[in-house]
Amino acid sequence: MLRRNVDEKSFRDELIKLIRDNNKTQYTAEDIVSVLEKTRDWFGSSSDCHIWFHSNKIPSFSGLTPLEVLERYNINVLNDFVDATNLGSYE
């Protein structure tokens, strides 16, 4: 489990370790880091970004969290959602 209120480098290092430790993934640590970097401006901190990634329900994806979207579909679907949201196309 990632710690809250850590500096960004520690947060990124912990996230990469967590993902690499989970050998069931169909995506890379860099994929998740790229999504978090694209969404960082939506939040006040990396910790808030991490919370969004793991717990925010996205209505457009039947209430899946961003992590669940990534696991069920792929990184491209999640990136498309983030890019569209950044352009104002989603909720």
End-to-end Cα distance, whole Å, is 29 Å
Mean of pLDDT: 82
**Main sheet, how many strands, which sense, barrel?**
none
Order of helices and strands: HHHHH
- Give the count of helical stretches: 5
Beta strands, count: 0
Estimated helix fraction: 55-70%
Low-confidence stretches: none
Structural class: mainly alpha
Radius of gyration: 13 Å
Q: What is the 3D form?
A: globular
Strand residue content: under 5%
Number of domains: 1
Write the layout of secondary structure elements.
Blueprint: H1 8-21, H2 29-39, H3 46-55, H4 66-72, H5 75-86
Helix pairs in contact: 2-5, 4-5
Overview of this protein structure:
This protein is mostly helical and about 90 residues long. It has one domain (about 10-85). It has 5 helices and no strands. It has helices at about 10-20, 30-40, 45-55, 65-70, 75-85. The protein is globular, with a radius of gyration of 13 Å. The mean pLDDT is about 80.
Can you tag this structure with a few keywords?
91 residues, mainly alpha, 59% helix
Summarize this, please?
Helices cover 59% and strands 0% of the residues.
